[in-house]
Task: structure prediction
Amino acid sequence: MANTKSAKKSIKVQERRRARNQMVKTRVRTAFKKAQHAVSENDSDNARANVVKAISEMDKAVSKGIVHKNTAARKKSRLMKKLNAL
Result:
């Protein structure tokens, strides 16, 4: 348990950041699942829109420092490869 005032404040700050990070990660995962599902259904119009949304969400997560840029690049590349295969 935290003893000092600064340690108690640090715990509160960490909880706020963790909640924000979880929210962003969930948004990214949901967007990617929707995009992958649309690509697997061979629905090109819906797939393209979902892929753009997923890439946008991933870029936002990278800019906030929640996801590493190489991880984002890898996932975006794989998603675009599947989309272009349509």
Remarks:
- Residues 5-40 form the longest helix (36 residues).
- Residues 22-85 form a domain with the Methane Monooxygenase Hydroxylase; Chain G, domain 1 fold (CATH 1.20.58.110).
